[in-house]
Amino acid sequence: MKQIKQLDIEKIRNDFPILSQKVNGKNLIYLDNSATSQKPQKVIDAITEYYKSYNSNVHRAIHSLGEKATLKFEEAHEKVAKFINAEKEEIIFTRNTTESLNLLAYSLGKNITSKDNVVITEMEHHSNIIPWQQLCKRTGAELRYIKIDKEGKLDLKNTPIDNNTKIVSIAHVSNVLGTINPVKEIANIAHKNKALFIVDGAQSVPHIKVDVKDIEVDFLAFSGHKMLGPTGIGVLYGKKEYLKKMNPVFFGGGMISNVTKEDAQWADIPNKFEAGTPNIEGAIALASAIEYLENLGMDSINSYVKDLTTYAMKKLLELNNITIYGPENGDRTALISFNLIGIHPHDVAQLLDKEGIAVRAGHMCAKPLMQVMDTQSVCRASFYFYNTKQEVDFLADSLKKVQGVFK
Ligand code: C6P
Description:
By secondary structure, this protein is of the alpha/beta class. The protein has twelve helices and 17 strands. The protein has a seven-stranded mixed β-sheet, sandwiched between helices. It has a four-stranded antiparallel β-sheet with strand order 13-14-17-16, with helices on one face.
């Protein structure tokens, strides 16, 4: 059996300058990692080093600074590719998951007709709903949903995928339920029906070793900022056989092989999809974030965060008058959404903030799912490998205190 390296959390926490500060006079307990993760010094240094020593545009300059920036930017494509077991030319840098999914909806939309359908699930983030809704409005295609069961898992016995399904796009991990969806199984159903299979990896890639070949995905979208990288840098992976055939959706500098007064031809992938000056320091810092994650080991991160989530689940279940959403245990990770019965989640979050605890409250950009769950909003505690059981204990104690205030 493979040995998983134990993480030295105290040592790790020292790498994150923000974690040692006080908020409202209390030690910061950052439990909003699904919204965005904190950044280690190594990533912050990668950004400052770029601006201090080789700030320059890429793919244009002959001078030394430009050459170094270009080399580092190219290396960043390679680093991301290796991280998910893809090839360098299959990695397109975007701003975030949202932009990656929109790019797909525009580019793939060209081949969709009113006879076709697109399948998503009831647990999607707005970023994996609205681009497809808009595509269906443009083309007359039908948008279908895979339903979720009472536990917060997908009902795969009754999927609406059929021979007219052209695209299946699903979240790997739900940002509300924490459910880890069986992507390989869904890939199989999609491919049997000759549909393209897209995975929204925003909440999985930071936590789970994602191998695009293993999960047989055609496209994968994720964001740098949820995995220690800066905001404004995201990734779209696509199988090269598809990317080569697809049309770009943004036009301008950097994405052409030739331009005349009348027409233009496109550069090879991935440049064809990366029009304009890219987020150079973002890509370089994302590569640095990946180095940091790899150094800890994705298996170690996954195992630690899963254990911590199980522990948090046990602590929260000990509270009275709490509703917890999603599977109780097993196929879930990294986050727990809940409501204290009779107390608005915004009030809960505000009182927790007074204790130095950062959680998210609201609809989590998943309003259709809120409807299915029969609620308007929830509170969500989300974890990363620098969180501790002591922090979870403090969260549980603070929630009891909140209940006391509202008695
Ligand atoms: N969810 C959350 O607090 P962007 O904003 O493009 O980096 O990521 C969008 C996105 C797409 N899919 C899933 C499953 C997500 O969770 C998110 C971002 C954050 O839950 C911000 S709303």
